[in-house]
């Protein structure tokens, strides 16, 4: 039994610090740029309007307040989303589709197991969170949250701001946006989310001779162009950060982004 416990701890520790690589799933790298129609995310927006509260520099979700009727509405929304073929739409619409799908599935996963202290408590015995669980079937292909983020969003769009768009229901994560992503507002939301996160202590914190950055900038440094790319990226949104001669530490808060 002792060895089983030790093995479990080792697996959990490894998973906690090992970020998936960006590896394209070629099937999803197609679009219909002639199609100017859009998907409706109104049902998701209604839930955000009702249960997402901005408090200080955090957006917090009122999981304990979600009614049974609204739980059903979320399930119906996800069912409707699963009937859509995103490849029929433009790349711009696809980006909004995948981000909204990811975020709404994450909220549903929390609601299904609530109350919990952290999303990392979900998943199997040797899992660190639910990200490798099969959660949705699109075009006959069963996907995990990791598939959506690391095999579709990251490699197709190659925009590091995607890390500010997808939300992992944790206090250390960039905020769940109060607006559903759309073709029209995506760039504005990404810029706004990046600026808010970087100018908050969970993004960048300076104290004495030490700078503490979100672990996102360690796990996904390659998306920003390595450490020097991370520094340039941060300075785009927060002028005056002094990296020279300072130690860089990383931190992340996995506690649930809930408002009680």
Automatic annotation (TrEMBL):
Domain of life according to the entry: Bacteria
The UniProt record lists the keyword Transferase: no
InterPro entries noted in UniProt: DUF547
Annotated signal sequence range: 1-18
Presence of keyword Signal: yes
Domain (DUF547) ranges: 89-198
Keywords for the protein's UniProt record, in alphabetical order: Signal
Protein name in the entry: DUF547 domain-containing protein
């Amino acid at each position: 039994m002792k060895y089983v416990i030790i093995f479990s701890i080792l697996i959990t520790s490894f998973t906690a610090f090992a970020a998936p690589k960006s590896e394209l799933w070629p099937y999803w790298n197609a679009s219909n740029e002639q199609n100017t129609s859009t998907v409706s995310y109104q049902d998701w927006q209604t839930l955000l309007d009702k249960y997402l509260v901005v408090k200080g520099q955090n957006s917090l979700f009122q999981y304990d307040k979600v009614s049974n009727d609204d739980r059903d509405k979320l399930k119906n929304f996800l069912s409707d989303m699963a009937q859509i073929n995103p490849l029929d739409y433009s790349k711009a619409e696809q980006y909004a589709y995948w981000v909204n799908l990811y975020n709404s599935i994450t909220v549903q996963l929390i609601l299904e197991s609530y109350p919990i202290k952290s999303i990392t408590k979900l998943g199997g015995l040797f899992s660190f969170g639910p990200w490798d669980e099969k959660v949705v079937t699109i075009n006959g292909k069963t996907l995990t949250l990791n598939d959506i983020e690391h095999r579709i969003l990251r490699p197709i769009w190659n925009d590091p701001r995607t890390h500010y768009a997808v939300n992992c229901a944790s206090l250390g994560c960039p905020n769940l946006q109060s607006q559903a992503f759309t073709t029209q507002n995506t760039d504005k939301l990404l810029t706004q989310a990046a600026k808010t996160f970087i100018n908050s202590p969970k993004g960048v914190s300076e104290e004495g001779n030490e700078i503490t950055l979100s672990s996102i900038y360690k796990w996904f440094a390659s998306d920003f162009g390595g450490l020097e790319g991370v520094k340039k990226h941060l300075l785009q949104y927060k002028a005056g950060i002094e990296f020279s001669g300072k130690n860089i530490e990383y931190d992340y808060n996995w506690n649930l982004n809930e408002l009680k």
